[in-house]
Amino acid sequence: MSIRDWPEQERPREKLLAQGAAALSDAELLAIFLRTGVAGRSAVDLARHLLAEFGGLRQLLEAELAGFSAHLGLGPAKYAQLQAVLEMGRRHLAAQLQRDSALESPQAVRDYLKARLRHEPHEVFACLFLDTRHRVLAFEVLFHGSIDGASVYPRQVVKRALAHNAAALILTHNHPSGVAEPSQADRQLTQKLKEALALVEVRVLDHFVVGDGEPVSLAEYGWI
User: Fold this and answer.
1) Model confidence band, residue 4 (pLDDT cutoffs 50, 70, 90)
2) Residue among 173, 144, 147, 163 nearest 202 (CA)
3) Virtual CA dihedral for 154, 102, 205, 177, nearest 10 degrees?
4) Model pLDDT for residues 85-139, shown as the tens digit of each residue
5) Which residue, 166, 107, 121, 108, is CA-closest to 140?
6) 177 burial class (0-12, 13-18, 19+ CB within 10 angstroms)?
7) pTM of the predicted protein model
8) 180 phi, psi to nearest 5 deg
9) Domains annotated on the chain, with CATH
10) How far apart, in whole angstroms, are the C-alpha atoms of residue 142 and residue 149?
11) What is the pLDDT of residues 23-57, one digit of tens each?
12) For the chain, which terminus, N or C, has the lower number of CB atoms within 10 Å?
């Protein structure tokens, strides 16, 4: 049966307009993006099939072009559309942070860092550079690879903070394993960077570790 033949309140697009996007399942949201199904499958049926094949919505969103395009109903055009949607989401979150103080919008910070780092297949270390009112000046990925004292150079972090004329910053890195629990190396690195940045009067406000769930704040643990 075509979605057009469904009761109006059960059609994904009409349901979204009536109840809001949060009321829809992953399959219903994906069906709206797909727009049409394939022979013998409605858009919702195809969406359910794709979610099962990929293992979930996150895996589908983070798929590479080759893997994405190999599935029925998908291809380079859909991949380009999806990447555009994801990037618009990241820029929307960035715009929210630029309007408000990072300290007054802790959930906005977490949401932005998840959007930027959770999909990374390898560890990356980045900084949110802030002005005197703790509004975001810039976000930069500074280092790639295993995050420890040997791979993150305080001199480079200080150099970028001065280049942005930052008064404060928030450190962040991801754990590709999905487990966001800070390690002893994370704590030692945070202290090392805090001491280096204090010499140029730049405050380290927090260090977030990004995994599968909510980013973990070292400041909330009392480690900043």
Assistant:
1) low
2) 163
3) -70
4) 888 888 887 777 776 667 677 888 888 898 888 888 788 999 999 999 888 899 9
5) 166
6) exposed
7) 0.70
8) -90, 10
9) 3-74 (no CATH), 102-221 (3.40.140.10)
10) 14
11) 999 999 999 988 888 877 888 888 999 999 999 98
12) N
User: Residue 25 corresponds to which tokens in the numbers above?
Assistant: 């399942």
Length of the chain: 224
| Burial per residue of 194-216, b for 16 or more beta-carbon CB atoms within 10 angstroms, e otherwise | bebbeeeebebbbbbbbbeeebb
Which residue type is seen at 12? P
How many other β-carbons are positioned within 10 Å of the β-carbon of residue 20? 9
- In the sheet with 216-217, reading across from the earlier edge strand, the strands are 136-144, 124-130, 168-174, 203-210, 216-217
Closest CA to 82 of 67, 56, 63, 110: 63
